[in-house]
Amino acid sequence: MPSYKETRFLKICDSELPYFYAGYRLDLGGTYNLKLKNNNGCDSLITLFLAVNTTPFQPDAIIGNPFIDIQGQYTFSVNPIDNATSYQWYITNPEWRGNSTTNVISIFIPNPGNGTIAISAINECGESEKTELYLTSSVGTKDYDSEQKIKLYPNPAVSFTYINFKEIKGNTNIRITDVSGKILHNEVYNINEIQYTLKLDISKYPKGFYFITINNNDQTVIKKLIIE
Predict the structure, then answer these.
(1) Which residues is 67 bridged to in the sheet?
(2) 8 Å CB contact between 64 and 76
C-alpha cells in the first residue's frame, strides 16, 4: 500500500500538451493515478485531475446595422463564446468611439465615413481569430435622391441593374455590400459626362437584399437593391 496519498487539481492550456508531471507524459485531460517514490524510497499515490482548456473559438457574425445615417450611439454584439473570459473590440475609424471587454459594444458615430469593427474572444490560453463587420456612415451627407440626380433601375433586378447619374462628375466610388456588410464590389469610376449610365453585373450574387453605396466628392447616398 502507498504510504502517502494526495489529490491534486491542475488546469493547463492545450498548447502545453503533452504535459509532463513527475516524469509522466500526459497527452490528454482527465484523471490520472500516478505512483511516485519520495526521497526515502516510499511509495506515494497522486490522483491528478488534469483539465485542458483551449483558445476560444472565433465569434460568429457581428450583429448590428452596418449602414448608419443618423449621428448617435449604435450597439453591436456577438453571441457569447463558452470558454471566453473577455473580449477585445477593434475600431478602425479614429472618429468612432467605443470600448468594451464584453460581447456587446456601444459605438458613437458622429460623422460620415467608412470603417471596420472587429472582435476577438480571449481567455488565459490566448486570443481567437477576429470577426469583422464593415460599416458605412452617411451621417450629415447630402442625399442626391432629393434632386433626382441618381437613379437605380430595375429594382428588383435579376442579372443586371443600372445607375443613372445626372450632373454628377469626377471620381465616384461604387460599393456593393450584402446585409452582413461584406463587400462584394468596390470600384472607382471617373464620370465626365453630364448624364451617365453605369451597368452593373449582379448575376453572380444570390437572391436577397443588398446595398449600393455611392461616394462622390465627400457626399454619399445608399441605395437598397433587391435581387430576385
Answers:
(1) 136
(2) yes
pTM of the model: 0.62
Taking the C-alpha atoms of residue 158 and residue 154, their distance in angstroms, rounded to an integer, is 9
How does DSSP assign 126-160, residue by residue?
Answer: EE---EEEEEEE-TT---GGGGT-EEEESSSBSSE
Each residue's pLDDT tens digit, 106-163: 999 988 777 899 999 999 999 999 999 988 887 765 555 545 688 899 999 999 999 9
167 within domain boundaries: yes
What is the distance between the alpha carbons of residues 85 and 23, in angstroms, rounded to a whole number? Answer: 32
Amino acid letter, 169:
K
Written as nine digits, the cell of 73 is: 450611439
Q: Which residues contact 87 (CB under 8 A, 6 or more apart)?
A: 59, 78, 100, 101, 102, 103, 119, 120, 121, 122
Maximal CA-CA distance, the chain = 97
Same domain, residue pair 150 and 214: yes
* Count, residues in the chain: 228
CB atoms within 10 A of CB 198: 15
More confident residue, 140 or 96: 96
Instruction: Please compute Rg for the chain using Cα positions.
Output: 28
Cell of 180: 452582413
Give the number of domains in the chain. Answer: 3
The pairing of beta strand 131-137 with beta strand 67-68? parallel
Q: How far apart are alpha carbons 109 and 121 in whole angstroms?
A: 24
Domain range for residue 71?
67-137
